């Protein structure tokens, strides 16, 4: 199985300030079709996860443009340009290049 | 709009089975794969398997092979996940989640998620 490792475990951010989360995979997520199967989700308290970013850098429908994803191969980053109160929760990266999907351990984002 | 509505919370004894349902609406049910993912209390996300609602084919995580069965009913646009031989470690919220990509394309990962079903295993 591909192991997904996220850092940091938690983040406390002042509203309006940027935030960044790192995700590293144990194998390359670059598929033979040229796409990289790295996803980002946000799980707000008491809710199911919601898709933010697919294939490294594509924002899902309705996701604000303050969220952006980057990276390649095995190293990826989610950035929030200006954190808002509604962004609190746990962020997960996920790989789907192997059908046995695996998730990172999560990064908890709190507001200062 | 895409909606996935799951059945209610369950309490089961060790050794029993549980069957969770997930009713889809707002899209063509047979056109998208459906994943099942679980989350133990205070823990991360664990993928359990996937079903093709069109033909009924499935693929399960090795950890659950022999204990999980995913089925579907196209007449009601509902998928089911049954987990048998329950133990306390199976206490978790179980989610169904539609795949981002239409069937016949590469499986990509969940986009829309159900609200979750809490299954508690306790004697």
Give a structural overview.
The complex is a heterodimer of chains A (112) and B (123). Chain A has 112 residues and is mostly beta strands. Chain A has no helices and 11 strands. In chain A, the strands form 2 sheets. In chain A, strands 2, 4, 5, 6, 9, 10 and 11 form a 7-stranded mixed β-sheet that branches. In chain A, a hairpin with a 6-residue loop joins strand 4 and strand 5. Chain A is globular and about 40 Å long. With 123 residues, chain B is mostly beta strands. In chain B, 0% of the residues lie in helices and 52% in strands. Chain B contains no helices and 11 strands. Chain B has strands at residues 3-6, 10-12, 18-25, 32-39, 46-51, 58-60, 68-73, 78-83, 92-102, 110-113, 117-121. In chain B, strands 2, 4, 5, 6, 9, 10 and 11 form a 7-stranded mixed β-sheet that branches. Chain B has a 4-stranded antiparallel β-sheet with strand order 1-3-8-7, with no helix packed on it. The radius of gyration of chain B is 14 Å and the shape is globular.
Topology:
The complex is a heterodimer of chains A (112) and B (123).
Chain A: E1 4-7, E2 10-13, E3 19-25, E4 38-43, E5 50-54, E6 58-59, E7 67-72, E8 75-80, E9 89-95, E10 102-103, E11 107-111
Parallel strand pairs in A: 2-11
Antiparallel strand pairs in A: 1-3, 3-8, 4-5, 4-9, 5-6, 7-8, 9-10, 9-11
Chain B: E1 3-6, E2 10-12, E3 18-25, E4 32-39, E5 46-51, E6 58-60, E7 68-73, E8 78-83, E9 92-102, E10 110-113, E11 117-121
Parallel strand pairs in B: 2-11
Antiparallel strand pairs in B: 1-3, 3-8, 4-5, 4-9, 5-6, 7-8, 9-10, 9-11
């Amino acid at each position: 199985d591909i192991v997904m490792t996220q850092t940091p475990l938690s983040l406390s951010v002042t509203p309006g300030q940027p935030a960044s989360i790192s995700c590293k995979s144990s194998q390359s997520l670059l598929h033979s079709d040229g796409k990289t199967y790295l996803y980002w989700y946000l799980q707000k308290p008491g809710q199911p996860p919601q898709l933010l970013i697919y294939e490294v850098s594509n924002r899902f429908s309705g996701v604000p443009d303050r969220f952006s994803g980057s990276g390649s191969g095995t190293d990826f980053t989610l950035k929030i340009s200006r954190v808002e109160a509604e962004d609190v929760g746990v962020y997960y990266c996920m790989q789907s290049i192997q059908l046995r999907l695996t998730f990172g351990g999560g990064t908890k984002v709190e507001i200062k | 709009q895409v909606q996935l509505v799951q059945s209610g919370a369950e309490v089961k004894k060790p050794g029993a089975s549980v069957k969770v349902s997930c009713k889809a609406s707002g899209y063509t049910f047979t056109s998208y794969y459906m994943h099942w993912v679980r989350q133990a209390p205070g823990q991360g996300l664990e993928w359990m398997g996937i079903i093709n609602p069109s033909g009924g084919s499935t693929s399960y995580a090795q950890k659950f092979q022999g204990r999980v069965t995913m089925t579907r009913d196209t007449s009601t646009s509902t998928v089911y996940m049954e987990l048998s031989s329950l133990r306390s470690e199976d206490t978790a919220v179980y989610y169904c989640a539609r795949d981002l990509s239409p069937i016949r394309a590469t499986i990509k990962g969940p986009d829309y998620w159900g609200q979750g079903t809490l299954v508690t295993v306790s004697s």
